[in-house]
Amino acid sequence: MDSGKPASRAALTFRSFLVPVLILVLVVPILLGGGYVVSRVLRHSFNNSDARRAARTLNFTLLKDQLDEETGVRGYTSIPDARFLEPYDVARADFPGKAALLRKRLAFLDIPGTQATLDDAVAANKEWLARVAAPLLAAPRRKEASFLQFRGKALIDRFRTDSQRLDDALVARESGDNRATQDAIDNVSTLVLFAVTLIVIIAAASSVAQNRLATRLEAERRRAESEARANLELRTAFETEKRIADTLQSAFAQRPLPVVPTLSFSATYIPASDEAKVGGDWYDAVELPKGRVLFSLGDVEGHGIEAAVNMSRARQALISAALIDPDPAQVLRRVNAQLLSSGRMATAVAGYADASSYEFVYATAGHPPPLLLLPGRAPVLLECGGLPLGVIEDCAYRTRRVQAVPGAVLVLYTDGAVEHSRNVIEGEALLMQAARTALENNQRDLAASIRTEIFGRHPVGDDVAILTIGFAAGETTRMTFAADSTQGAVVSRLTGARPPDERARLGAVA
For 118, what's the count of Cα atoms within 13 Å in the CB-facing half-sphere? Predict the structure, then answer.
């Protein structure tokens, strides 16, 4: 009987090991097989993900090349300067190779319809180059430029529609691959849960395993607490920076406008919809002797405290330079020299409004064109040009003069006012319509009215600053207008308020 006890103990010991061994023998092959299947799904998903990212990048690059082509042609048509054609030439040279690479990526992904869509986009680009760009570059003339650009808009819209369709198809494929990947991850999670359960069953009686588990849980708890503290510190730092930036932005942007009997001013500033985007837009108007007012408006690259500080630096530099030199082009040249050391690029428009002569004198540095409103006339985008401030040393700028009339209004704005959608031409048209409506309705606050008209329909995606300067209209002023088709001039005949020989010249005088 006693000899049977060791045998029973051995049997019990054997049985105690048999169950875990059987579990391992049955489960391990299942885990290995499932892991192999899941790994293949994940590997295929990752390969497709790389191809999709490359295809979307190439698609975006083609869209950028097309925009560079359009921008270069438009700039060269406005100002026949060969430098405007540099991005056009680069984009035109790169476009075919990038299109071929995108075609290979799409063939690898095998998404139905994408090859045809890409072919149509390439055809639209070629047609635009032949029918619009080539005539404009061969002999750019203002009368033909508008017609050709209007004819080319359908081709551009067609190209952009094809580009959007390609992106939508890639996004749709990404969603499908993500679902497959998620399913694979869920399977992995199930297998891992099964394995963990098995390990826990085997190690349930082991105090060592329990101690290790307790130690691991404690370590995870400490890590979670550490991550929570770090996140709280980051959030606190972000909120502190935002409060400082908001305070700086408010202090910089809300300077009171001058009160001049013969001039009227209105301004508005709209911060970006994203709370982190505290940027570098500003506007300014400073009264000078003899009925003259210095005005400036600009946009410093970037957002946050650094952008706000650089904005203040550029703003003060403009005022200081204007008090020394009455030529707006020289003012921008002085400011450009000061901003080179900051490493920040800025666009700006600066000049003077003369109430005694009804004249606007201005210069621009990579900034959107000013908008001129004349009573009884359609709004006109004035000439602009020049590289942004802080880009290169010894940059030359050009002073332009516009002879206006009583009741005329100059509208200055940052690019956020017209780039709320992908179509800048549509944005400029909406701005002109909003300004015209505000003037015709005799709105006291033109800037606020323009802002409401534009952003009542579109979300604010970037900081926006708008400044208007208007000449007071005399009570006895009567105006008739005639257009000179060869010079683009507007002639006004005045009775009572001004001599009858006033001429509004919507052009540039160096």
Answer: 27
pLDDT reported for residue 136:
79
Domain 258-504 is in which class?
A: alpha beta
Portions of the chain given CATH number 1.20.120: 20-193
The sheet with strand 263-270 has its strands ordered as: 263-270, 464-471, 409-413, 371-373, 380-381
Instruction: Note the pLDDT of residue 132.
Output: 82
pLDDT at 403 over 90: yes
Could you give the residue range(s) of every CATH 3.60.40.10 domain in the chain?
258-504
Q: What percent of the chain has pLDDT over 90?
A: 25
Q: Examine the pLDDT at 407 and tell me if it is beyond 90.
A: yes
Per-residue b or e along 308-340, where b marks 16 or more CB atoms closer than 10 Å to that residue's CB: bbbbbbbbebbeebbeeeebbbbbbbbbbbbbb
In the chain, the N- to C-terminal Cα span, in Å, equals: 121
Euclidean distance between CA atoms 302 and 308, whole angstroms: 9
Tell me the fold of 20-193: Four Helix Bundle (Hemerythrin (Met), subunit A) (1.20.120)
What's residue 226's pLDDT? Answer: 85
In sequence order, the 6+-apart residues with CB closer than 8 A to the CB of 415 are 299, 347, 368, 462
pLDDT in tens, 80-100: 777 878 888 888 888 999 889
Cα separations (Å) of 124 from 66, 97, 99?
Answer: 10, 16, 13
Whole-Å CA distances, 6 to 2, 14, 263, 417: 8, 12, 112, 92
Contact 368, 298 (CB under 8 A): no
pLDDT of residue 199: 62
Tell me what the pLDDT averaged over the chain comes to: 78
Q: Is 179 exposed, middle or buried (0-12, 13-18, 19+ CB in 10 A)?
A: exposed
Can you tell me the distance from the alpha carbon of 211 to that of 28, in angstroms, rounded to the nearest whole number?
25
